[in-house]
Structure formats: C-alpha cells, structure tokens
Write a structure and sequence with these properties.
The protein is 32% helix and 19% strand. The protein is of the alpha/beta class and 261 residues long. It folds into two domains: 3-41 and 183-257, HAD superfamily/HAD-like (Rossmann fold, 3-Layer(aba) Sandwich); 79-179, HAD superfamily/HAD-like (Rossmann fold), CATH 3.40.50. The strands form four sheets. A six-stranded parallel sheet has the order 5-4-1-12-13-14. It has a four-stranded parallel sheet with strand order 6-7-8-11, with helices on both faces. A two-stranded antiparallel sheet has the order 2-3. The longest helix has 13 residues, at 125-137. The radius of gyration is 18 Å and the shape is globular.
C-alpha cells in the first residue's frame, strides 16, 4: 500500500467537532510524502467551504486535494452531452455546475438529466415529485445520483442522506441511476485517476461500511474502517469485511508502520 483515499465526515470530523488526532495524522501524511486524496459524498457545500471548515479544525488542505461527486458528475455531463440539467442540489453546490446548461422550469424543454444531491430538510413531496415528473416526461432523461449514501451522523443524531431519495425515484420511474459518488466503482476509479495510483496500491479510510469500505473493495482498493462517525458495531456483522479496523484516524500512522514494505 503506497497511497490513501480518505473520507472526511466521520473520519476527520463528526459534525462540527474534529476527531482527535486528525490534524496530526494529516501532517504525518505530508511529512512521510504519502500520496492521498480526500473523497467525500458531501454535496451540501462546495469544496471551498470544506477547506474553510477543515482549516477551523487546524487541518490545512487545498481544494485540489478533495474529490467530490459534483466533479465527477460535471465531467460525465460534459462528455455525454446530456442537457439541459435539472439540479436538485443545495444552492451552494450549483456553482460546481456553472458551465453546464441548466433546465429552466419556465421552458417547455424536457430535461436531459436530473441530478440529485443531499438537500437535507429542503426535500418535500413537491420537490421529489417534480424530479419524478421530469424523469417520466422523457424516456431518455438520465437520473444522476451524487452518491448513494444511506445516512450520516449529525450533532443531534442520524439523518437520511441522498441514497433513499434516489432509490425512491428509481422505484417510481423504473430507471437505474448513474451514480457519481460512493459506493460506485466508477467514482472510485475516477478518484484513483486523480490520485495517480493503481487500485492495488491504495487503501480507503472511511466510517461507512457500505459506501466507503464495500465500494472501495469492489474497485480493488483495500478498505480501512474507522470506529468513528456513523460506525456501529453491528456493521461488522454484515457481508462487507474491512481489510483493517482502526479506533480512529489517529491510529493510522502506527498501523501504517506495521505494514510490510
């Protein structure tokens, strides 16, 4: 193992609280010159906001060190020619699609793609039904999911993420979503391309047994589970078996030192 993909929420921080030792571990990665890339399904804020948040925790990184579903989706949209695009994402995330033709609700033109991100409590029946109607209006309209994360941990408990809403639209419309985020192997493949390392030399550090660990393993990447964030002991009773289990990101340097050359 020579390089790492690392999740953010649940690994470096939990809501508005930094995971103890996270900043020290990131500094260690730099000092050891270990290539790494942060991969996150977060679509509720742009990369610039993530950089600012991490900086407040004493973790200094650049936007180019974060790989997100909007980045992968934008590249796919521009290459596929699917347009115009109906965005169901937070207002802040729309900036990531600035050069993509957007669907105008006042027009009579059907959408070429419907993009779903994490709208949190902005989801309601009317908004979900609008996405459904756009999919049903034209058989060629593509449903694009910015990840399939089931839920995440907030300061007041677990909260639904984008995955359940994607699955609802898949069921209602009979479509299968193009997934631009974890656990899609294509997303991990794009992250590996960005990192510049082959899968068999990379480990994925994450708190989500399905999205992080299972998704990485299906892409040929070793999965390193941390016991922070959304992790629950029952996660280890399922079909996905991590290649390693750490108490937290703080335990990474000591574990890494024990690996064979």
């Amino acid at each position: 193992m020579k390089a790492l993909l690392i999740d953010l929420d649940g690994v470096l921080y939990e809501g508005e609280r930094v995971v103890e030792g996270a900043a020290t571990t990131v500094n260690w990665l730099r000092s050891e010159k270990i290539p790494f890339l942060f991969v996150t399904n977060t679509t509720s804020r742009p990369r610039s906001a993530l950089v600012t948040k991490l900086s407040a925790f004493g973790i200094e990184i650049g936007e180019n060190e974060i790989f997100t579903p909007p980045m992968a989706a934008r590249a796919w949209l521009l290459s596929s020619g699917a347009a115009p695009v109906a965005l169901f994402v937070p207002e802040e995330t729309r900036a990531d699609f600035a050069d993509v033709p957007l669907w105008d609700e006042s027009s009579n033109i059907n959408a070429g793609a419907v993009i779903l991100g994490d709208l949190s409590d902005a989801w309601d029946f009317d908004r979900l039904n609008q996405a459904f109607r756009l999919l049903m209006a034209e058989s060629s309209t593509t449903l694009v999911a910015l990840g399939l994360t089931r839920y995440w941990k907030t300061t007041d408990g677990l909260q639904l993420d984008v995955g359940p809403f994607v699955k609802a639209l898949e069921y209602a419309s009979g479509r299968t979503a193009v997934v631009m985020g974890k656990p899609s192997p294509d997303f991990f493949g794009a992250a590996l391309h960005e990192l510049g390392c082959p899968a068999d030399q990379v480990g994925m550090v994450g708190d989500d047994i399905i999205g992080d660990i299972g998704g990485a393993q299906r892409a040929g990447i070793r999965g390193i589970q941390v016991r922070t964030g959304k992790f629950r002991a029952d996660d280890l009773k399922g079909a996905v078996k991590p290649d390693a289990i750490l108490a937290s990101i703080a335990a990474l340097p000591a574990w890494w030192a024990q690996q064979p050359d």
